[in-house]
Design goal:
Length: about 210
């Protein structure tokens, strides 16, 4: 599977106009720390018995070791369904400077916007933190933007209070509308293998 490149997609694609991001479906979400600072932990080599091993010749498997801030990011992600019953979490991971996750939305009420047909390109693209709004200019409860906005706020509040001062996310996040089972499986594999492929990742930073 080719690595996703949000920066390239950013230049050629914008958020889908007219698409209702509160409708049922699967969404691949990526949220990055401001300036791609590695504030959530580090990727280390771990051998088969779980002992950290930094010798390249041993080719240990790569594992994400969360620090306190990373643990907060992970815990807040797992708590999303408690605040948004329409959200179901699938594969996710907290990386040194970003979070990947698949969120499934169940129906949250009457849609106010016509959704686009399936054959329209839906590459990974950046999204503003501003919540989706209906025709009355009010945030749509349970939409992806509302969920991510509240998640980011929760992490920021707890991290600044308990760990890292002046923690900031990038103002935007990346979303990809998952259209079929094959795409979902590819993205899930991409998330699972993210630690192993960290040095080739588009968000890699030291």
């Amino acid at each position: 599977m080719n690595n996703y490149n949000p920066n390239i997609h950013h230049r050629r694609s914008i958020r889908l106009k007219g698409y209702d991001y509160s409708q049922e479906g699967l969404y691949f979400i990526t949220i990055c720390v401001q300036d791609r600072k590695c504030l959530f932990g580090e990727i280390v080599g771990v051998d088969d018995v779980g002992v950290q091993n930094f010798e390249p010749l041993n080719q240990p498997r790569q594992e994400m070791i969360l620090n306190d801030a990373g643990k907060i990011a992970g815990e807040c992600w797992l708590e999303i369904p408690e605040h948004f019953p329409n959200a179901i979490l699938h594969e996710h991971i907290v990386m040194p400077n970003h979070v990947h996750g698949i969120i499934e939305l169940k129906h949250v009420g009457t849609s106010h916007v016509m959704s686009l047909p399936d054959n329209i390109e839906t590459s990974v693209r950046p999204s503003h933190v501003m919540a989706q709004q209906n025709q009355f200019s009010k945030p749509i409860p349970g939409s992806i933007s509302v969920i991510i906005q509240q998640y980011k706020s929760s992490v920021t509040r707890f991290v600044n209070k308990n760990n890292v001062s002046h923690f900031r996310w990038q103002s935007r996040f990346y979303e990809h509308i998952i259209r079929n089972e094959q795409s979902c499986q590819q993205i899930a594999d991409y998330i699972i293998n993210n630690p192993k492929n960290w040095k080739e990742d588009n968000f890699f930073n030291v």
